[in-house]
């Protein structure tokens, strides 16, 4: 959809050995209003959420 925000959470290796997402970046950059890059997009957020979940899991274990 034109003007959409596209959040690419996929990570793959293309035929040339480069990291890429699931979204065709070249096509979407002409349509989407905002597009997260791969690599360099949501990786830090994913890591932060995972760390938060690990801390919470530990806290729940300690409460038992």
From TrEMBL:
Its EC number is 3.5.4.9. Residues 1-59 form the Tetrahydrofolate dehydrogenase/cyclohydrolase NAD(P)-binding domain. It is an enzyme of class 3 (hydrolase). InterPro entries: NAD(P)-bd_dom_sf, THF_DH/CycHdrlase, THF_DH/CycHdrlase_NAD-bd_dom. GO terms for molecular function: methenyltetrahydrofolate cyclohydrolase activity; methylenetetrahydrofolate dehydrogenase (NADP+) activity. Keywords: Amino-acid biosynthesis. GO terms for biological process: amino acid biosynthetic process; tetrahydrofolate interconversion. Pfam families: THF_DHG_CYH_C (PF02882). GO terms for cellular component: cytosol. Coiled coil: none annotated. PANTHER family: C-1-TETRAHYDROFOLATE SYNTHASE, CYTOPLASMIC, C-1-TETRAHYDROFOLATE SYNTHASE, CYTOPLASMIC-RELATED. This is methenyltetrahydrofolate cyclohydrolase.
